[in-house]
Each structure stands twice: as structure tokens, then as C-alpha cells.
Amino acid sequence: MRKDYEKTRPKTPPDGPWMDGESTPRDAARFSIPLRPIFFAVMFDDVQLRYRYRLYPTPGQRVALARAFGCARVVFNDGLRARQAAHAAGLPYIGDTDLQKQVITRAKLTPERAWLGEVSSVVLVQALADLHVAYRNFFASLAGERKGPEIAAPRFRSRKDVRQSVRLTRNGFRVRPGGRLRVAKVGEIKVRWSRPLPSEPSSVTVVRDAAGRYFASFVVEVEDEPLPAGGREVGVDLGLADFAVLSDGTKISNPRWLRSRERKLKRAQQALSRTQKGSRNRGKAARRVAKAHARAADARREFHHQLSSWLVRDNQAVYVETLSVKGLARTRQARGVHDAGWAAFVRMLEYKAARHGRTVAKVARDFPSTQLCSQCGRRDGPKPLRVRAWACPGCGARHDRDHNAARNVLHEGRRLTSSTVAAGCTPAQGHAETPNACGEPVRPPFAVARFVEPGTRQKPEAA
Ligand SMILES: [Zn+2]
Fold first, then answer.
1. Can 321 be counted among the known catalytic residues?
2. What is the number of helices (H) and of strands (E) in the chain?
3. pTM for this model (two decimals)
4. Which residues face 235 on adjacent strands?
5. Are strands 187-192 and 180-183 parallel, antiparallel or unpaired?
6. Ligand 1: distance of its center to the CA of 361 in Å?
7. Measured in angstroms, how far is the CA atom of residue 329 from the centroid of ligand 1?
8. Which of 114, 194, 246, 300 is deepest in the core (most CB within 10 A)?
9. What is the C-alpha separation between 395 and 376, in angstroms, rounded?
10. Which residues contact 29 (CB under 8 A, 6 or more apart)?
């Protein structure tokens, strides 16, 4: 019964139009906006995706980029400091235009900030735009206009932050026909074009990551590519033992190449912990950990891309529950790692579904997927995690814990989407009307996610 992911993988690898651009999990979470439940079928428009490529700057270009990272950070921090000072002095909030005049235009004329003129002003203006967005999100969160966790006030950026970046809009960069990326006041940087850009990018973020690698992340508008309707639907239970279990019984574990990357990361971390603090070996070991970390993260993202593409292509609707490990004693750190991985995966499912006219619905976090019998709907209470299989006292059906949960997620997902249909929304194609298997009271409608890129659609609803 148990299949490894490698075996269940589609024969044709999901590439070409399926290798969608990268999402940036952290940014997407920061900028995503709550929407009323509507099916994607009624809100088709173009999707903005990120396409990321490795950059190979020359030593001189690295110096210029470091200067740009530094100046962007200083402008961001100056702006934050000015607003904090105004707030502390009881003065009104400094508007975006006034702040720009203060910390960029006028600052350049002072001896302490004259060096801001050495980098492209596009970089400085965009750094300040980041600050504006951070403030707007913070205010919206304070006013209760944002769903999800509370957003903290903007924080100062540090020279020691592992990820340094600058963002440039169209007037600050150009993709050269010869294949190099021209960045204002940095030069023409060598790019490894791992796949073609689908259209002209509207902005680019140049990033230096913890492992010292450089990337260009382009924001590109891509047209929706609705797929022919299919009737299949699937429930997905994300967990620890297997990455995912599907309602048809397929178990998908992390592929071997990802496990080996994660083992290497663990070994590098152990080696680091054995070194003396402040020693030269410690510095080397820390860089090795950063590299292993970056490689494991890349591998994980690649796996998420493959699996999400496959699920969206083969199913008209995907229903997903992300917290099947409630109550398991885990360290906070380990839990964070898993939650972040699942969240990134679910976001990929969502934006791919949006592009291809498919439905993704998230089942509520408190849905008792392991308490219900997926056969007869009987609810017989919570079960400790060590109970992997049981027989239903109502109908006698034998259940595998995760498979049963995935089937319950499928039933619940169908119920949720069909109750939205009843409320007057356009149904997605291929939805079977299924009776509620468990007889539970109606839950709040699921959230439909929408992918919003930072730096491009900054005032979706707040404006
Ligand atoms: Zn039963």
C-alpha cells in the first residue's frame, strides 16, 4: 500500500508551464489579504509570480551591491527613526512624501548622508516603500482589519541580517539581450538563466542569502492557464511520519534527495556545536551550516513545487488540513520548521490552483479529522498519537489513522465548498454534491487565498 514519492511521481516531470515561479513565503504571508469566500472561477485575472535566478557578480559588483544593501538599510532605518521620534514627541504621523523628502532628498545634501548619492535612488525609494507597507500592515492589524496573527510594529534592519536585499523597479534595471542583468550603478551582472522569463518583469529584487549566494527575483505577470475540467477531488492530510497522505490511500514521504540534504544539514549543525566559541573553526563551521541550510531549503522548495503541481494538475479540487500533529510533544523549534514547510506548500497549491482554474480549500484547524469514522461519520473521541489504526465501534470499518483523516478532510472540504455554493456563489466545475458525512454543525466558510506580491500591489484593500 505504501508508496514512496518517487514511485507515485508523474512520469512526465512537472516542468514547462508547470514550473511556476517561486513564491516568497515570508513576504506572501506578510502581504496576503483576507478575502470573502469566492471561487477562483469568478475571479480570473493575471497572476504575478516570482522567477528566481542565480547571479554571479564580479568582486567589484559585489562591493557595489554591498553599498546598495547598506544604503537601502540606512534609509529604511532613518525613516523608521523619524516616525518613531515624531510619535514619541506627540507629533502627527509623517506622510510618505514628506518622509521621502526628509530621509532621501534632503539627507543627500548633508555631509553625514552624502554617500546616499552613490547608489541608485530607485533602491532608496523602494526601501522606503517597504517601510510604508510595514506601517500600513501594522495599522491594519491594530484596527483589526487583518486576519491572521498580529503584525508587530516595523523593526530596524541590521547589518548582521542574514538576508540582504534591494528592490528595483523598471527604471532601475534592464535585462540585456546578451543575457546580463543591468542594475543601475552596479553594472551588468552575469545571470544563470535556468528557464526563460515568460514576459518582461515589472521589478527585480537582488538578494544575498545566508550562504553568500546572489539571486535575482523577478516579478512577472503571467496569464492564467485554465486547465480542462476534471472530476477528481482529493483530501490531503499533512503530517510528520509521511509528508502527506491522500484520501485515495497514497502515502507521500519526503523524497530521498531531500532527506539526504537534511541529514547533511544536521551533521553540519552538530559539527558547529562542537567547535570552540570565537575560534576560527567556528566561523568556518557556521558558513558550512548556512550553506547546508540553503541547499536543504532549495531541495524542500523543489519537492513542494513538484508535489503541488502534480496535485493541482490531477485534481479539480484539493482539500487540505495542515495540523494533524496537534498534541504531539515537540520542541517549539521543530514545530516551527514543520509549520513553515506546510504553510509554504499550501501557498503553492493555492496560487497554482488560482492560475489553472482549480479549487483549493483549507479545512479548519480544529476539524476533528482523527475522531470521525470516514465510513459512517461516528465520532468516538480523540485518540493518542500512538494509535495508528483502529476499528470503528459503529460500523466496524478498520481505519489507518492518516488515511482516515485524509478521507474526512475530503468529506469536510466538499461540504464546505457546497455550502458556499448554496450561499449564492458560482460553483467550481466538477463539484459533486455530497451529503455531510458527520452531521456536524456548519463551520465558518474556508478562506480562499490570493497571491499578492510585495512591491507590486501594495494597497489592495487598505487604500
Ligand atoms: Zn464507522
1. yes
2. 9, 14
3. 0.67
4. 319
5. antiparallel
6. 25
7. 29
8. 246
9. 6
10. 148, 343, 347
